[in-house]
C-alpha cells in the first residue's frame, strides 16, 4: 500500500483529467451537433392487432455524426441529461415529432419519448403546447412516452405536470413497463392511456414460462384499469402470435418494421394501404 501511495494518486489524477477532458469534448461535440442540426427522427411502425393495420409510429432520435456515423440515443441521451442539454434536445424532439405527425395521414399517431429529466424543468407543458399549436396537429394524435422513474418518490409535481399534459389532449404511455421500480401504486394515481411491455419479456416469451406469465399478468392488469397494451421488440412471427394470443392490443418490433426516416415510413404506410 505504501509504495502505491503517491504513484497511485498521480495515476488517478491523470486518469481523472483525461476522463474530464474526454467528457468536455463529448459535451462540446453534442452542443455542436445541436447547432449544426445533425439530429434526425426515425419512425418505427406500430401495428394495431385489432385492425391489423399500422396506426402509428414511435419517433426515435438519431444523431448523424459527420465522423462517427449514425449514433444511437443510448450513446448520447445520458450525456445530454448529465450536461443539461436534454431540455434543448428534448424540445427539438417534441417539435419535430409534432411536425412529422402533421405530415402523416390523420389516422396515424406519433409517439414521442420524454426523458425524466425534462420533468425537472418548468416549461415542458409550454413546450408541448407550443409544438402542438405550431404544427397544427390534432393533440389526440400525439402520445408521450414516459418511464416509471418519472413517478418515483411519490413525486406530486410530476403527477401534476402529467395532468397538465393530459389536459392538452395528448395521450400518455408508460414505457419499458416491468423493468423499473415496479411499484404498482402509481398506476391509478395518474390516468395513463397505454402500457408498453418491455422488450425483454417479449424476447423470452417463447422459452421462459415466467416471461409469458408476466406478459399475461400485465395485459390483465392493464385491461382491468382500462389501458391498452403494446408489446415491444417483436422480432418473429412466433412472438407476434404469442403476444396476440395474450391479448396485446398492438405490437412494435423489427418483425413489423425497423425505425426508418419519415419519407420511408410514408412510403411504407402508403404501400400497406395499396396506394
Ligand atoms: P425505447 O423507448 O424503449 O425505444 C425502443 C428501442 O428498441 C429503440 O432503440 C428501437 O430501435 C429498439 N427496437 C425496436 N424494435 C426492436 C426489436 O424488435 N428488437 C430489438 N432488439 N430492439 C428493437 P433506439 O432507437 O436505439 O432507442 C433506445 C432508447 O433511447 C429508447 O428506448 C429510448 O429510451 C431512448 N430514446 C430514443 N429516442 C429518444 C428521444 O427522442 N428522447 C428521449 N428522451 N429518449 C429517446
Ligand atoms: Ca419509447
Ligand atoms: Ca388521457
Ligand atoms: Ca420501450
TrEMBL record:
Name by which UniProt lists this protein: EAL domain-containing protein
Domain annotation EAL: ranges: 23-273
Domain of life: Bacteria
Annotated signal sequence range: none
